[in-house]
Amino acid sequence: MIDPTSDIGEDVDESDAPTCHTCGKKIVMEPEHRVVSWIEDDAVEHLHFCDDECHEGWSGRRPGR
Ligand SMILES: [Zn+2]
């Protein structure tokens, strides 16, 4: 018996995938994926990072206020 729904697992459309803010890589199945969100002008902003290294690269260079 063949179950047509049991394919490779998650069907993630690449065009819907977020990209890493630091290196620009598509984040499709990254286990180390980080998301940072904050409120700016009453809207929620999100940034995606493929791993801790990219996240720290961004937060280290972020201009402080
Ligand atoms: Zn990255």
UniProtKB/TrEMBL annotation:
InterPro entries: DUF7576. It holds the Pfam family DUF7576. This is Small CPxCG-related zinc finger protein. It comes from Haloplanus rallus.
